[in-house]
Amino acid sequence: MLILPSAEWLVRPRRGPGLRARLTLLATGLSAAVSALLLWLGWLLVGGVVAAVPDLPPGSTVQVNGVPVAARQLGEALQQAARQRVLQAGSVAFLLAVTATVLLAWVITGQVLRPLHDVTATARRLSAESLDERLRLPGPRDEVAELADTFDAMLDRLQAAFQAQRRFVANASHELRTPLTVVRTEVDVTLADPAADTAELRRMATVIRDATLRAQQLVDGLLVLARTEGGALRIRELTDLASLVEAALRIVAPEARSQGLRVTTRMTPALTVGDPALLERVVGNLVENAVRHNVGGGWVEVCTGLAGPQATLRVSSSGEVVAPEVVTELFEPFHRGGVARTAHDGAGLGLSIVRAVVAAHAGTVHAEPVPGGGLIVTVHLPAA
Fold it and tell me: Where in the sequence is the domain holding 207, given as residue range(s)?
């Protein structure tokens, strides 16, 4: 059994003092340097002032600190005495200033860095089951509060991503379970029937083929989603959306004729740069949805062209009434508008693939309901 190392073991060990200690040392060093500079300047200033005393008559003496000093040595004696007093008092002030700086810097940096410790503690407590916890740091809107707000916003995005992943996995498991259950049931029923003949075996093979085809479509759709949502495009070629529409319409033409659909097109060249296979999947999914989710005797309209710096594809069709509030849900994986989840016509990934591929091409996709029933889907891609 493969045992993965814990997250703590993977973290690179940190050496040296922490941020609080480094800030304290920095503040102490600056305070000591400034205090020493002021002490030195005071020493120079006092020496210069005392050295400027007036000259006394030659041969006279003056007592400095009880010691008789000749008049010609008075200036030098006063200068030494004054500088000694400055050094004594300045040394005491220097030690007091440095000590006060150490204490104040340690306390203040502790208060300032406390929210960062809260962020760290929250990050260590988080797991996939506790992503709903937030800092919501009170106080002024400073840099630390901005960091906490950014951390909360990141948690919002992570929580949404985890929830979407759980829904996706649950839906994918449900969708894959259905064809597998069909296959197993058909095989068990046929094996349990001792009188099964060739016709029964052919019927079972047909059902199994349809179930495996649906499973293959689902897996292919999942692979496309993983490919487009996983990073940048690997292939970039000049592609005309109009030519892709023509190919897609030829594929769905028999189904459109069987339903009595009226198909109209208004196409002008719409060149863009991207992965031709993925763009073909976008056009194919939209055209197939327009035909598959239509009504008998309905209509389909496909338009391509350029709108400024964008290549545009618009697919409109009649169909069942779609409520405006559920339009955005149509782009979620495994959602089918007006079709039960257990339906056999598609895996419910068509519009989600469209959204993922368009986003990978730096484009946008928008859907809106048609009054009276139907849907309009508009795709905008950067024009070549």
Answer: 153-229
